[in-house]
Amino acid sequence: MQMFRARCASCQTIFDVIATPCPVNVFVRVTKAAACPMCGNAKGNLTAPARDLTDAERAQRKEPA
């Protein structure tokens, strides 16, 4: 599992967008609405290299038994 990340077109900040894998309709809705947490820019943001989820993030995504 990885975290999809974006790079702000305005201030170049790299920020987390959504953990993958996830349903395609959710992925599209979240990535279209993504805005930079530093400057608020939502236009023209680019993809950035993904990162592995932390142990805490992985535990949060596990299905309840």
> Taking all residues together, what is the mean pLDDT?
93
Instruction: Note the overall shape.
Output: globular
Number of helices: 2
| Structure class | alpha+beta
Q: Give the N-terminus to C-terminus distance in angstroms.
A: 19 Å
The total of beta strands comes to: 3
Give the SSE order as H and E letters. EEHEH
What is the number of domains?
Answer: 1
Radius of gyration: 13 Å
Strand content: 25-35%
Helicity level, as a percent range?
Answer: 25-40%
Structure overview:
- There is one protein chain.
- By secondary structure, this protein is an alpha+beta fold.
- The protein is built from two helices and three strands.
- It is 26% helix and 31% strand.
- The chain starts with a strand and ends with a helix.
- The protein has one domain.
- Strand 1 and strand 2 form a beta hairpin.
- The chain has a three-stranded antiparallel beta sheet, covered by helices on one side.
- The model has no long low-confidence stretch (mean pLDDT 93).
